[in-house]
Design goal:
It comes from Thermobacillus composti (strain DSM 18247 / JCM 13945 / KWC4). This protein has about 350 residues and is mainly α. It has 14 helices and 4 strands. About 40% of the residues are buried.
């Protein structure tokens, strides 16, 4: 009888539900907050939530690259703050050249380019610490978290660079448009999230570099033996994470029309939570950009929903921490269930 009915087992309903857990959680949160939070589903609230989600998603995409490669980046929030302060410093004070007795003020496109290069450079330093000096990713990026935040504080003595509108005489106007502008009625920040998502999915799925990132995170030794340049891959993912953080720093400063050195504090939690909720394994070797963007929606809806309900900021931190722990537990359970399903399929073949 066993031979007559022998075949591959059907899909496991529990496994399918686990794979769809992020989408299910998002639907549940939207339904709950639509009842508990007044005006949650108003157009203005949805646009505001989408703007916040875009920031978490961009950070989460960079974090996904790092985690899939087997690392972690705790410095993204500090790079956000540092990037905003660099932009504010260049707009308000300019680049002082004492040897020539002049102050150089750059146009907004040049300022954006400088900030993006700075963020990428900081990420590259993280990568070099991890690869060349063999510092554990957790320690390397934890150190950079403090170093970048300290430099941001030193740049202004802990003060804010206000009123980043620039001056027509100096040729540096237009910075607020990045955060406040829109195209086809959709804010620029959402378009930026879409562009990052499309580019990142293509890089992950359609290029050798994307395959190498998965290979390094899945089995670093095997990847090395197969000829993959491990160090280059790792440096790239940290540079990309720094680049994503710099983009977010520019957007936030533009939205606020001001730069504050404390901007981005604890945002590394949002980035990690978005990636993990989206199915990225902290063990490396598994993750998806689409899942991370869904995870960012969960974090954004959860955060803004709690704010609308008047939940204390301290409780918000507690809940986010519990969400991360729960996501890791569920991810581990899913991995075990998948392993059992694979073994059952092989036994039935």
């Amino acid at each position: 009888m066993r031979q007559l009915f022998k075949g591959r087992p059907g899909p496991d309903i529990g496994l399918l539900l686990l794979k769809a857990r992020t989408f299910i959680a998002l639907i549940v949160l939207v339904v709950v907050f639509s009842f508990l939070a007044p005006n949650f589903l108003s157009v203005q609230s949805l646009i505001l939530i989408a703007k916040h989600v875009a920031l978490y998603a961009i950070l989460g995409i960079g974090m996904t690259y790092v985690i899939v490669s087997g690392g972690i980046d705790l410095s993204v929030g500090s790079i956000v703050g540092l990037s905003g302060m660099i932009a504010g410093w260049l707009i308000v004070e300019g680049l002082v050249l004492p040897m020539f007795g002049v102050i150089v003020y750059f146009s907004v496109p040049v300022i954006i380019l400088i900030v993006l290069l700075a963020g990428t450079l900081v990420g590259g330093i993280n990568g070099i610490l991890v690869t060349k000096f063999k510092v554990a990713p957790f320690i390397a990026t934890l150190g950079m978290l403090y170093a970048a935040r300290g430099v941001a504080m030193l740049s202004s003595g802990g003060k804010t660079f206000p009123n980043l509108v620039g001056s027509p005489e100096l040729g540096n106007t237009g910075f607020p448009a990045l955060g406040a502008g829109s195209f086809l009625g959709i804010p620029y920040v959402i378009w930026i999230m879409i562009l990052f998502g499309v580019f990142s999915v293509y890089l992950f799925k359609k290029t050798p570099l994307g395959w190498h990132i998965f290979a390094v995170g899945g089995n670093e030794r095997a990847a090395e033996l197969s000829g993959i340049r491990i160090n280059r891959v790792k440096i790239f993912v940290y540079m990309f994470s720094g680049f994503c953080s710099a983009v977010v720093g520019l957007i936030v400063s533009s939205q606020l029309v001001a730069s504050h050195p404390a901007t981005g504090e604890t945002w590394e939690l949002n980035a990690i939570a978005a990636a993990v909720l989206g199915g990225t394994s902290l063990a490396g070797g598994r993750g998806s950009i689409g899942g991370t963007i869904l995870g960012a929606f969960v974090i954004g809806v959860l955060s803004d929903g709690m704010v609308m309900m008047g939940v204390s900021e301290f409780w918000q931190m507690v809940i986010k921490g519990l969400v991360i722990v729960l996501a890791v537990i569920v991810d581990q359970y899913q991995r075990n269930l998948q392993s059992k399903h694979v073994l059952a399929s092989r036994a039935a073949a």
